[in-house]
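User: structure tokens for this one?
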Amino acid sequence: MTSQPLPTIDPHHAPPIGKGIDYELFLDCVHCGLCTSACPTYVELGTEMDSPRGRIYLMRGVVDGRIPLDADVKHHLDLCLNCRACETACPSGVQYGRLIEPFRNDLVKTHQAAQTLPWWQRLVIFNIFPYPWRARLALAPAKLLQWLRLDRVLAKIMPSRMRAMQEMLPRLRSLPALPEFLPAEGTKRATVGLLTGCINDVVLRHVNWATARVLQKNGCDVWVPRSQGCCGALHLHAGQEEPATHFAEKLCDTMLARDGVDAYVTNVAGCGSTLKDYAHLLAHSPYAEKGAKFQAKVKDINEFLMELGPVKPTHPLKIRATYHDACHLCHAQKIRQAPRDVLNLIPGLELVPLAESEICCGAAGSYNMTQPEMAERLGKRKAENLLATQPEAVFTANAGCLLQIAKHLRTEHPNIWVAHPIEALWASYTGEKYDV
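Assistant:
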């Protein structure tokens, strides 16, 4: 199939949306349709405009001036999870993320983005979640309600959107902040900078503790800068490139302040995919060199451990488990085997294959708040596939996936352990009983 010639557009009347996108990226798509079976929204809805090639057609049509940017077009684009499964399926190497993210950024910059959230929810996602101390303060009442066992009772009278956010919360634990430095156990093998994340360190701090301890166990000096903040992923995936860039620049300054660091380690797939794209995000900023330098050393915790050569655990975990591939780990970072290799190190653990493991669970950053109906459908679909494996434990390597999957299993199956692979590894190192 031959590519169509580039359209001739009068530069004085060029549409502002998408004009900065390299047009050749649109032409990479040959409309073969192999992406459709990998796309969660197409799998659920079966409509062409809710498939990757359909959305590429819409974006290209808007850029060409052939399609008006109306509410229907915005709806189809908003429904995209940006899970990048289409990139894995595409034989032509279409860089879908390089199309949807700048297109959404233009919608935001020109005030043409659809407002799918009430003001208070936008405030929470973009002005509270990225700041750990604000998030911790905002969640203090929820923590008190959990302690008083009133959270489920009050949820029944909450407005639907507020109830949906409340249902996503895990049990909020009281754990101290990680020390700024944790020394290696035994012979030192590496020095790492641990990225704790923003909302991740508020609701899933126990995962950060497990990560730091596993790194120590594997001979790593662990540096945890107190001044680190959000990586910018929440804003970037919502089309807000300017604040995302600001967060990225600040994080580069913080993490590059120390010499002799062998790797910057993250345990959140969504953060990791953004961190590994800093060279692109900061390419036109004064931080271009710093972004590339930082990105070159970013590693997912599973990836880093398997490259280092992990210390073998000795305490058996005699459980039947399955693993869900977080989208931004398997599709964006192309990491599939490393988390499974980590789990297969554990004596006694039976890892059962999961049907549709690479289909999104519906979390997708803030998607389960911006598109609650589709997120609910995908969450239920994922829960059905998980339960079909008859698991005692479900593992996944992303904060959003952990919260989304736990929400969909919690009510009827509260005894299933939903955890990060690193939590299982730490339990097998120590013999401590894991906390469901």
